[in-house]
Amino acid sequence: GQNIDQPTEMTATEGAIVQINCTYQTSGFNGLFWYQQHAGEAPTFLSYNVLDGLEEKGRFSSFLSRSKGYSYLLLKELQMKDSASYLCAVSPRRNTPLVFGKGTRLSVIA
Amino acid sequence: SQTIHQWPATLVQPVGSPLSLECTVEGTSNPNLYWYRQAAGRGLQLLFYSVGIGQISSEVPQNLSASRPQDRQFILSSKKLLLSDSGFYLCAWSAGQGSYGYTFGSGTRLTVV
To answer: Is A1's pLDDT higher than 90?
Structure first.
């Protein structure tokens, strides 16, 4: 089976750093994606990891450890507009659909 | 550049009525196409995906069906809607797999009353 776990909700303060964890157990591994989804909108692509290590893109970074089946998304200098759901998704094999976690709802407070 | 169009944005339909949601992609050829549903406060549930014209894989056997009459057109249908069909329907495309991931359409909010 395919299983992706991430916390349901998190709250963080504006200007702070927050780390959203994701663990996965899938039948194969061809990459891990993070998406951001604001309420009532479609998900938008944030990052992609296929090799172990950290990928940095502005205020957002994503880390992958394939041996541990673990990833995290790091958001720095939080802004109110970062309040959204963050979806972790794994590609088990090429040309097969992504498996999505249920998402982590992040609330950024002043 | 590639764009994906999905319509309508919102829909209110009575129980037992038919459904047709359409999705089209521009600026690419032979995309992989997907239909997802997201119930309120829930994760994304894969309904159908297609890797080519006339090739449809169903993940959830229910009263929904999908068709791909043209390379860049993907249609989600139902003959008779149920209350449980309410949700946020998302179409997405990808250029195979790899670092491209998915690009989602803007979604259709369906309420069955």
So the answer is: no
Q: Which helix (H) or strand (E) holds A1?
A: none
Give B74-107 pLDDT, tens digit per residue. Answer: 999 999 999 999 999 999 999 865 556 899 999 9
Residue A86, both tokens: 């963050």
Decide if A42 and B32 are in contact by the 8 Å CB cutoff.
no
Chain A from 7 to 66: CB within 8 A of any B CB: 30-31, 33, 35, 40-45, 48, 50
The pLDDT of residue B86: 93
d(CA B98, CA B3): 19
The two beta strands, B108-112 and B10-13, are parallel
Question: For the segment B9-18, what is each residue's pLDDT rounded down to a tens digit?
Answer: 999 999 999 9
Would you state the pLDDT for residue B97? 54
**A73 has pLDDT over 90:** yes
Structure tokens at A6: 């991430």
Q: How many CB atoms lie within 10 A of CB B78?
A: 19
Which residues of B fall below an 8 Å CB-CB distance to A? 32, 34, 42-44, 46, 49, 51, 59, 88, 90, 96-99, 101-107, 109
Cα atoms in the Cβ-side hemisphere of radius 13 Å centred on A8: 2
Q: Residue B98: which of A31, A34, A52 has the closest Cα?
A: A31
* Cβ of residue A94 closer than 8 Å to a chain B Cβ: yes
